[in-house]
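Here is the promised in-class demo. Please do not try to memorize the tokens; focus on the logic of going from shape to residues.
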């Protein structure tokens, strides 16, 4: 497995389980290349390629098909992440079957008490997350951006119809396969069911720059908080910056809750007004002022794309990040899954 692969997967799952980064000298963190006889949940492990304070991420083999799968493990001893919560959230992920969502094959808990370990077996996805395409030198062509965000919106519509809210949509959780122009949403294994009795938790779960005002306030949320976050992602992919930027966390939270985002026309005047109008709706302070669902967002984006002229940025081939780049700098993965 390449070093880039390990880096990208550590990015993809760092929200709650901050995996170890590369050493300052650029060398990859130590990993086990072969793990004969080590099995988790019936899946033989091949390599461990990410480590964190609460768990690990492994490459494993599906015993039925021989195909590669990703196994995320989480130590459940003490703290907030209880056995019950882990099983509930992994069950939410298992309910989702959509081409735009990373598939959760199985989940469970091994062991008891302080030694209990939760595990989720997930679809192996080749590609990279969208983080590397949020800076001006690497912005994607606008038609591709609109299609990828439309795919994400359709996947969110499916999840919301199943009663599942992601709560942490951001570029690092959107996995992109360049050769096929396909996108998959990752990290639904940590989604929360939007059941009425669980819709108000008071816990700040997510990444603040992408969180809707009602989510920051700890109020009841539904799928429209995901659409707000998707609006932030769309803004970032089109402009190379976040709609709200501040020097401190307090200033950022204040801006998100009280300030209007900059109009898209002020930063990209050559883009169609309809795209700016959609972004303004997605980033509305009140959930009821946002689009009704992801399907509406996808239809609008594809309508804009159909009337969009040639790409306004040069497609090019984004420069590959140098080997040894730390995880804070997004890097691509290999174009195909590694051979176990």
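The designed amino acids, position by position:
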């Amino acid at each position: 497995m390449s070093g880039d692969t390990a880096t990208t997967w550590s990015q993809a799952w760092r929200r709650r389980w901050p995996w170890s980064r590369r050493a300052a000298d650029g060398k990859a963190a130590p990993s086990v290349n072969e793990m004969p006889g080590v099995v988790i949940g019936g899946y033989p492990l091949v390599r461990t390629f990410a480590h964190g304070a609460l768990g690990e991420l492994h490459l494993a083999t599906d015993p039925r098909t021989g195909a590669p799968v990703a196994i995320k493990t989480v130590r459940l001893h003490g703290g907030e992440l209880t056995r019950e919560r882990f099983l509930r959230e992994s069950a939410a992920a298992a309910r989702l079957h959509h081409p735009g969502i990373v598939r959760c094959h199985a989940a469970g808990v091994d062991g008891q008490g302080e030694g209990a370990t939760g595990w989720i077996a997930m679809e192996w996805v080749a590609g990279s997350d969208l983080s590397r395409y949020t800076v001006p030198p690497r912005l994607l062509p606008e038609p591709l951006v609109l299609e990828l965000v439309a795919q994400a919106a359709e996947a969110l519509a499916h999840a919301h119809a199943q009663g599942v809210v992601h709560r942490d949509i951001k570029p690092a959780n959107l996995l992109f396969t360049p050769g096929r122009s396909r996108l998959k949403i990752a990290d639904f294994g940590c989604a929360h069911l939007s059941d009425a009795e669980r819709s108000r938790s008071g816990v700040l779960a997510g990444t603040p720059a992408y969180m809707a005002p009602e989510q920051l306030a700890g109020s009841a949320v539904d799928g429209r908080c995901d659409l707000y976050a998707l609006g932030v992602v769309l803004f970032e992919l089109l402009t190379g910056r976040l709609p709200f930027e501040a020097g401190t966390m307090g200033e950022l939270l204040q801006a998100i809750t009280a300030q209007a985002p900059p109009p898209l026309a002020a930063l990209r005047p050559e883009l169609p007004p309809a795209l700016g109008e959609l972004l303004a709706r997605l980033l509305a302070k009140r959930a009821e002022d946002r689009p009704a669902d992801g399907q509406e967002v996808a239809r609008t984006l594809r309508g804009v794309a159909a009337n969009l002229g040639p790409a306004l940025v040069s497609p090019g081939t984004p420069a590959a990040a140098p080997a040894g780049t730390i995880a804070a700098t997004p890097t691509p993965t290999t174009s195909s899954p590694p051979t176990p």
